[in-house]
TrEMBL record:
This is Beta-glucosidase. GO terms for cellular component: cytosol. It comes from the Bacteria. Its EC number is 3.2.1.21.
Length: 442
């Protein structure tokens, strides 16, 4: 398998997210985010860590961009930290924050790296959360203001915008299960968060396209290939597939909420206003799918609403990643076929794919053969889908560097580049060296 097998215009890159790498959490006028508050609350993060420093990318971004250039990375997907630009979520902008992203974007361009921007990667301004967060329609309205500003401010330099990162993940983990910031639980929080996020996705896309008509505007979805444990579990698996994979895609396509499959969603009527159906819909230029594993679902009478549960991968797989996720390359092939079957999906990029494995550090080398194999196997599955007619036009690895992995802290390492968090030394791993050779056509 060679780079040329994917075609001349296929996009290649690596990704990051603002809170996970930037650090400088209270510097140069940045406001508090929900993740600042969450990580500073004892017991929320498995290793007790925070993103206060993380990879110190805010101060070391030039070094990171130099490594990207040396690796021959054509594209860098990163996110803008909303509270770094608008410390309270709206109102007066923070010019130092605005200037930082200009420096980052210009640094990419000067090195021949395309900057691809995600507008929301989970670091909601805490000031908005204090007034309801995504459970409040006000947050959706302020998000639209933020998108309008950012796309006007940086639009002349950006070819590809991504409105949201994984809406299923941040609404479910943050507003239903309480495992991620802001740590809310229950349907009373989850349902309004879902609807206001669906509005933000559609209206955010419309604003970005109006301000940047020559750019591609898309959004990204976390996806897991879903299979039932048996025929008796088929309906439960269908509900999981809808929630995890299809709900936000279908609202964006104008298909609304599938209340027949998931009656719980009938309660969304309480949060809808006239015209919301059209506000949720937007004709995206592309969608990004982000896949790491598959899930096997069995029927369960103990899980309300979905009436099913996931069978843990470690109970059914001989080999998993450090996150306990099954390694299943066929899953990304099936997902690409599934999403390509939607009439309104024009183009697909794989905007995240990668794995956490233990690294072996010996001197100036970092050995991670399992990660290299993982990437090769998943790339093979992507190529298979592409060769069968799926319009998949890019592959972006998660992640460029090791980083703060949300509630898991710093233990899982996903990076092509190893970070020694005490010294902030960067070392390109063997997987990164392989990817450099692959991009060079070797």
């Amino acid at each position: 398998m060679k780079r040329s097998d994917f075609g001349r215009d296929f996009l290649w890159g690596a990704a990051s997210a603002s809170y996970q790498i930037e650090g400088a959490y209270n510097e140069d006028g940045k406001g508090e985010s929900v993740w600042d508050r969450f990580t500073h609350t004892p017991g929320k993060i498995h290793d007790g860590s925070t993103g206060d420093v993380a990879c110190n990318h805010y101060h070391l971004f030039e070094k990171d961009l130099d490594i990207m250039k040396e690796m021959g990375l054509p594209l860098y997907r990163f996110s803008i930290g909303w509270p770094r630009i608008f410390p309270t979520g709206s109102g007066a902008k923070n010019q130092k924050g605005v200037d930082f992203y200009h420096r980052l974007i210009d640094g990419c361009l000067s090195r021949g790296i395309e900057p691809a921007v995600t507008l929301y990667h989970w670091d909601l301004p805490q000031a908005l959360e204090d007034r309801g967060g995504w459970t409040s329609r006000e947050t959706y309205e302020h998000f639209c203001e933020y998108v309008d500003f950012a796309t006007k401010e940086y639009g002349s330099k950006i070819k590809r915008w991504m409105i949201l990162n994984e809406p299923f993940a941040f609404t479910t983990l943050g507003y239903m299960l309480g495992q991620h910031a802001p740590g809310r639980k229950g349907p009373s929080n989850y349902l309004p968060a879902v609807h206001h996020t669906a509005l933000a996705q559609g209206e955010g896309g419309r604003i970005a396209k109006a301000n940047c008509p020559n750019a591609e505007v898309g959004t990204t979805y976390s996806c897991s290939w879903i299979e039932p444990a048996g025929s008796f579990s088929a309906q439960a698996a269908a509900r999981y597939d809808y929630l995890m994979n299809r709900m936000f895609v279908e609202t964006g396509l104008g298909l609304g909420y599938n209340t027949k499959l998931l009656p719980l969603l009938k309660k969304l009527d309480a949060f809808q206003k006239e015209g919301d159906d059209s506000r949720m819909k937007f004709d995206f230029d592309f969608i990004g799918i982000q896949n790491y594993s598959r899930e096997i679902i069995r029927w369960s009478p103990f899980i309300p609403y979905v009436w099913g549960s996931m069978i843990p991968a470690k109970k059914r797989c001989p080999k998993t990643t450090d996150m306990g996720w099954e390694i299943y390359p066929d899953g990304i092939y099936h997902l690409l076929k599934q999403f390509a079957s939607y009439k309104g999906v024009k183009k697909i990029y794989v905007t995240e794919n990668g794995a956490a494995f233990p690294d072996v550090v010996t001197g100036d080398r970092v050995h991670d053969a399992e990660r290299t194999q993982f990437i090769q196997d998943y790339l093979g599955a992507v190529l298979r889908a592409k060769n069968e007619g799926v319009n998949v036009q890019g592959y972006i690895i998660w992640s460029f560097t090791d980083n703060f992995e949300w509630a898991e802290g710093y233990r899982p390492r996903f990076g092509l580049v190893h970070v020694d968090y005490e010294t902030q030394k960067r070392t390109v791993k063997d997987s990164g060296l392989w990817f450099r050779g692959f991009l060079a056509g070797k």
